[in-house]
Amino acid sequence: MKKKLNWKLLRSQKGDSLRIAKVRFDWWKSPRNGMELKATVLETPDWVNIVAITPIGKILVVKQFRFGAQAVTTETPAGVMEADEGPQDAAIRELVEETGYTTANWTYLGWVEPNPAFQDNRCYQFLAKDVRKTHETAQDEGEDILFSEMTIEEVKNEIKEERMRNSLSLLTLSRVFDIWNIKTTKL
Predict the structure, then answer these.
(1) Pairing relationship of beta strands 22-29 and 8-17 according to DSSP bridges
(2) Which of 30, 90, 121, 145 suits a disulfide with 44, CB 3.0-4.6 Å?
């Protein structure tokens, strides 16, 4: 016998509008016991995350202060999608803004739900190969980003030393290394 897991949405109410998200309250009916549950949802923009690889196989990483972690983290280039742009256009824009690198060699890796327990957004993941420095960076007002090219071994060390700990960066790197079966000695 299959258990029903589909909850019924009873009503929604808008909450506060924050700089990076809007709060929404949803009331749901449990299929198991008929009880009503109030859930908090953060309506957040979709994101993109990019593993960018140079012609000689180095991976672009960015270092920036993260307010939630209250620390500097190492990450892959990433950012919020604008309301009027598609995922690949956002990835192209974010790569240029954060690093000044561009390429015509893009591979879409798929999308994930960053935290579906209380967020409604998606993170689209891309592989950008043969990236080259063609522009100056154009960071957003609230960004202070340093970028560098790292070997695979250096990236693995950033992970091992827990300087690269952003789950979306790690997942995108995992897709590049595992799903696409790219050897960890040379890209």
Answers:
(1) antiparallel
(2) 121
